[in-house]
Amino acid sequence: MNSLFEPIIDGILAEGYGIVDNFLTANEVSALAKRLHERREAGQFRAAGIGNQQRTVENTIRGDEILWLEEASATPEETMFLQRIGEFVEYVNRTCYLGLRDYEFHYALYPPGTFYKRHLDQFRSDSRRRLSVICYLNTDWQETDGGQLALFLPESDGSTEHELTIQPIGGRLVCFESGRLEHEVRPAGRERLSVTGWLKTA
Ligand SMILES: O=C(O)CCC(=O)C(=O)O
Ligand SMILES: [Fe+2]
């Protein structure tokens, strides 16, 4: 596992973000995607809100539907995912002393045409979110499907920024500092699936 975790951390330390492919195998991706669809068909998903106090649904800002993962009701593939994240958290704490204590993850489904406008993941009133983690569950994603994640990376002198666009390829994991990197999800032409979460301090 360290061979997966190390490049993520190296990337975060050097540039504020890390990307690794095959964090999940193709089989794990399809098992989680299948479970996501079953849970959505069972009516467990909700339109995502914005803000953490008065949560409001605002589909001009974000159009995804989400379901939080709960350890107690997790299926085997969900438990496997959360365990792998737990190992990653241990690795981060050993190598970077971020003092991570907790994590929270939700499934996200973006119906065709939906997006998430440019934002920062840290709530003003909750700075415990240190690292944002997104793991994609899309099979055969093509560039023409859209749905890229754009990261807005400041130049080191702070004068300008450049954009990095990332394809939401199944099994790929993206991790970045929640309080620092603004980002957005571009509209996708087909359903776009992921598990998204935050590694938090106490
Ligand atoms: O799905 C993605 O690529 C990013 C999602 C995101 O920014 C969020 O849920 O806060
Ligand atoms: Fe975000």
From TrEMBL:
<keyword id="KW-0560">Oxidoreductase</keyword>
<dbReference type="GO" id="GO:0031543">
    <property type="term" value="F:peptidyl-proline dioxygenase activity"/>
</dbReference>
<keyword id="KW-0847">Vitamin C</keyword>
<feature type="domain" description="Fe2OG dioxygenase">
    <location>
        <begin position="96"/>
        <end position="201"/>
    </location>
</feature>
<keyword id="KW-0479">Metal-binding</keyword>
<keyword id="KW-0408">Iron</keyword>
<dbReference type="Pfam" id="PF13640">
    <property type="entry name" value="2OG-FeII_Oxy_3"/>
</dbReference>
<dbReference type="GO" id="GO:0008198">
    <property type="term" value="F:ferrous iron binding"/>
</dbReference>
<dbReference type="GO" id="GO:0031418">
    <property type="term" value="F:L-ascorbic acid binding"/>
</dbReference>
<dbReference type="InterPro" id="IPR006620">
    <property type="entry name" value="Pro_4_hyd_alph"/>
</dbReference>
<keyword id="KW-0223">Dioxygenase</keyword>
<dbReference type="InterPro" id="IPR005123">
    <property type="entry name" value="Oxoglu/Fe-dep_dioxygenase_dom"/>
</dbReference>
<dbReference type="GO" id="GO:0071456">
    <property type="term" value="P:cellular response to hypoxia"/>
</dbReference>
<dbReference type="InterPro" id="IPR044862">
    <property type="entry name" value="Pro_4_hyd_alph_FE2OG_OXY"/>
</dbReference>
<dbReference type="InterPro" id="IPR051559">
    <property type="entry name" value="HIF_prolyl_hydroxylases"/>
</dbReference>
<protein>
    <submittedName>
        <fullName>Oxidoreductase</fullName>
    </submittedName>
</protein>
